[in-house]
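Hi both,

Apologies for the delay on this - the queue was longer than expected. I finally got the magnesium ion-bound model through. Below you'll find the protein sequence and the ligand SMILES exactly as submitted, and right after that the structure tokens for the full complex including the ligand.
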Amino acid sequence: HMKVHPEDVQRVLVCELPHELMPEVALYHFSPRKVEESECVCYCLKMFEDLGLVQQWQIKKDTLARFLLFVKKGYRDAPYHNWYHAFSVFHFSYLAIKNLHLVEKGYISSLEALALMVSCLCHDLDHRGTTNSFQMQSGTELASLYSSEGSVMERHHLAQALCILNTDGCNIFDGLTSKQYSRCLDLIRDLILATDLAHHIRLVQDQEKMATEGFDFNNSRHRQLLLFLLMTCSDLSDQTKDWKVSRTTADLVYQEFFSQGDLEKAMGNAPLEMMDREKARIPDLQIQFLSHIVCPVFKILAQLFPDADCLLQSTLKNRHCWEQASAFFSRRWESGHSSLDILR
Ligand SMILES: Cc1nc2ccc(C(=O)NCC(C)C)cc2n2c(-c3cc(OC(C)(C)C)ccc3Cl)nnc12
Ligand SMILES: [Mg+2]
Ligand SMILES: [Zn+2]
């Protein structure tokens, strides 16, 4: 099973980063995918510190370093669902908490901020680059464990997160009271299970209604819906960056989808068109994904927080780029040749 060596922990604790994170790390257009892999764990530690969470929750730094190293090791090298995805999702939760002043303004508590950030880091642990329906159709061991409850992969990600928290020297929550501890684990459970796309689709109408009515600070349902919204926005945050990041991410996602499609064909099952490298039209699929999933959630975020409007604008700009690519492609498809190279 996974091992983390004491010298790895020491290297993180003495990390050579300037004591404070560079100011640009806290900007919306900063792409965490540009951070050196060997520096990611240091950045995570600094982000927790920057938000005062290490201090507030009496988190021992060597415990946090060890926890972060175990989480990083807990990701496989799938094209998209790997450590850099988790690190990017975590970074966005830091951006939202810091730039929207979510704790100071009372939208979320400090404990909810801690749970949100830890959930972002752990939310796709041990992902194999295949979907829930693939687990069920091919009868994987994860499906036999979790298919009766649904959200097969998300239940596995949660189990992996709890396993790391229970590993010697990794329990970052041992400074919490037992009441805070059980509240925090309930939050992490709900937040990681909320990353199932099917769960998100069930919630989004209530989130739209909340944004239209206006956030009610005393309404526990509103507070819960906001945490789920922040989780989904973080999971999709690559689409709020510049075109190169947004397009590169789509490339990685389709590498996973097409590999799954190849597997399904080899098993005699017909893949979804989105997963069939012979049939998928990536620009059109991305326009649909941005229109139906991404832009709606950042529209809700922008309605609740006008300062987040720049994020919605970025997703709309990226959709426009795909529309231009699609127009260009359909001209080339008619003339018989096409490749994604034009986007290079
Ligand atoms: C660039 C990009 N293209 C995608 C294209 C299609 C789909 C897809 O699943 N389509 C199925 C139909 C029914 C909608 C997801 C895509 N996707 C995700 C993603 C989001 C997820 O769920 C949350 C975060 C809750 C929305 C879960 C898994 C993934 Cl891979 N992340 N980036 C992408
Ligand atoms: Mg996931
Ligand atoms: Zn994810």
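Main takeaway for now: The chain has a mean pLDDT of 95.

I'll put the files on the shared drive as well.

H.
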